[in-house]
Amino acid sequence: MKRTYLEVWGDTVDGRHLLYSILIGVGLATPAYLLAAWLFGQSSIEPGLAKSYSLLVGLAACVVTGVVSARAFPPKRILTEQTDEAGSREAAMDAIEAEYGPLGDPDELPAPVLREVQELGIYEDLRAQHAKHRAKAEVR
Predict the structure, then answer these.
(1) Bridge partners, residue 5, by sequence
(2) 3-state secondary structure of 56
(3) 7 to each of 13, 17, 79, how far by Cα in Å?
């Protein structure tokens, strides 16, 4: 059986699981809200406050629905990490330079930014990119 995937809020989901999640939400949240409205309506609580409490119970049931659905239908994605990080970084920096111009010398960055670049492990890549750009400029 072929699975049907849908794009919802920037994520790809299985259509059947989305439908089941909606049904779980309607099946839990609506009765919870209606039951709370009836119970709070029977109490001596002010009617406006009773409606607010009922809404809070309905919202809590929506959160429970989200947890139940997330447990019942885990993500289907398989994430793989690319091993050639230096090559992909170089390609990304080439694309950035093609669109915006040279990145510049990383040693000219302000101290806090330079420290962050070093912590991220991209300082050497930026230096290599700057040296490559400088070599191209000297050839011209």
Answers:
(1) 14
(2) helix
(3) 6, 13, 18
Q: pTM value?
A: 0.53
Please give the Cα distance from 134 to 107 (Å, whole number).
Answer: 14
What residue spans define the domains of the chain? 5-72, 85-139
Output the six-digit token pair for 43: 């109490």
The length of the chain in residues reads: 140
Distances (CA, A) of 35 to 44, 62, 68: 16, 14, 20
Exposure b/e, 73-97, CB count within 10 A at least 16 = b? beeeeeeeeeeeeeeebeeebeeeb
Using a 10 angstrom Cβ sphere, with 0-12 exposed, 13-18 middle and 19 or more buried, the burial of residue 123 is middle
Which comes out higher in pLDDT, residue 60 or 90? 60
Average pLDDT rounded to a whole number, residues 111-129 = 88
Model confidence at 76: pLDDT above 80: no
| Nearest-angstrom CA–CA distance, 124 and 106 | 9
